[in-house]
């Protein structure tokens, strides 16, 4: 009894050290940490936006239409005199949750398919991978355009349209990385002690093949936010008056010749989020790189 | 090393052709798959094209008649098969609901604009992105590396259409150097191409840098240096060829991004290309155009990926060696039989 407790303590300690090793490497990377901090701050701002925004996001003030950036309106006002800074803060909710939700949905579905396919192989593998080939032959944004043209605009429809396009890549990535570990001795060992298949996949295979997925999720969120903005821009996706960043750009394009602040700030907001996600993703990739393990 | 004889080279050539033909044949199921996927998505679209063609004043009877005429009252499988038959056996993408024109001729008419943009962009990506990545890798952690990587990181993070808007504001509205939108001479293509290529240049530079870094650390580079070769020779004769494979992959994938990107960029600059054609059809619910446009761009992308695979086989000595091995066994078999 005491013996097994000691063993489990030892195992746990080893697991933590693995995780903390990665975290330690990550925390040494200044760029990645900067990205992480910016994302955290933006998240906080998005959550707290209802309380901290200087004006209500849809409060119109016709007397101050098209006001340039000033102390009163940090990023100026739009064609209805709404404060752009407040709209950006509140819009962070839509843009961030769009990116995170769509990526997480596609990753979960993709991982479920990818791990089953990668583990069992055979006929299912051939069929699914051919399907993946077909879906990947359609450029991502086009697939998203087609699906959201069919579903119509709106938040949930956009999430669905964007997440379907992300599934094939996750499947391919996870399958490839599972193929790499499938012949390992520790899996044989787990099988010989009668480990059930779901347990084998979840407890033994996934933790050993998940690092490319972690990196691709981080980068994928950024890409999804970019794609969501493009969709809103061409008139699909989330539509005005919802203060989503892409939709704000789409609404502002009519006035951009004379009031450039209206397109400047939403674009900067998108670029900032995606940039921080990419910096974090780069750092994670370096930190998780098995070649650096000592 | 003995150079391969003409006969041997011919053998490799034939095997390469076999490979290319095999890949070309594989394109047929892929294209079938794309059209089934797109048709199915469009099938579930809400709205009745017959009603929207006839307008608000049409009677239900007239709408039903129109639906029957257009074949919209048929079940899913029948419509799918007739669409596939039309596309693959007659190379006909159907007719637009609202424009008096077949989708195929509409696409072919607009293809030059999209093709020009995509071609210039891919050229910019290769010509600017690759040297940027090499410079960064050679001066790892130096100033050049930092600058290149900041540019690259910004490039993959900025939305292309927003960059396009900013470029228009600066170069067209403020300085008045370039036209803000429309088509015409070459100067009309400068802003769209720069905006669209920026992301490609950035990802190309990133990939080139990381694969060059991997190669530069390997033993044969140390050997080459010990042999007393100049840095230039080491870089271009030993390092770059070995780093090419991932770089070519990025060019291929970048092509997909370019084609997707042009769809959005065309709408910023009002360029009447395939992307503009497709996206404006979405608003009219002109489904044959949407299906045709996506299918056409998907086919174009598959063709480019095929080209990339073939270039792979030429560039990568390992893949080539595989063919030479095959060829040897093939000749041995021939000898044994004859």
UniProtKB/TrEMBL annotation, chain A:
Pfam families: BPD_transp_1, OppC_N. Keywords: Cell membrane, Membrane, Transmembrane, Transmembrane helix, Transport. It comes from the Bacteria. One of its GO terms (cellular component) is plasma membrane. It is a multi-pass membrane protein. One of its GO terms (biological process) is transmembrane transport. InterPro entries: BP-dependent_transpt_permease (IPR050366), MetI-like (IPR000515), MetI-like_sf (IPR035906), OppC_N (IPR025966). The chain crosses the membrane at residues 31-52, 96-120, 127-149, 155-174, 213-239, 259-281. It is found in: Cell membrane. Belongs to the binding-protein-dependent transport system permease family. This is Peptide/nickel transport system permease protein.
From TrEMBL, chain B:
CDD domains: TM_PBP2. Gene3D superfamilies: MetI-like. It is found in: Cell membrane. One of its GO terms (cellular component) is plasma membrane. InterPro entries: BPD_transp_1_N, MetI-like, MetI-like_sf. It comes from the Bacteria. GO terms for biological process: transmembrane transport. Keywords: Cell membrane, Membrane, Transmembrane, Transmembrane helix, Transport. The keyword Transit peptide does not apply. The chain crosses the membrane at residues 24-44, 113-138, 150-173, 185-202, 243-269, 289-315. It holds the Pfam family BPD_transp_1_N. PROSITE patterns: ABC_TM1. It is a multi-pass membrane protein. Signal peptide: none annotated. Residues 111-312 form the ABC transmembrane type-1 domain. PANTHER family: DIPEPTIDE TRANSPORT SYSTEM PERMEASE PROTEIN DPPB-RELATED. Belongs to the binding-protein-dependent transport system permease family. This is Peptide/nickel transport system permease protein.
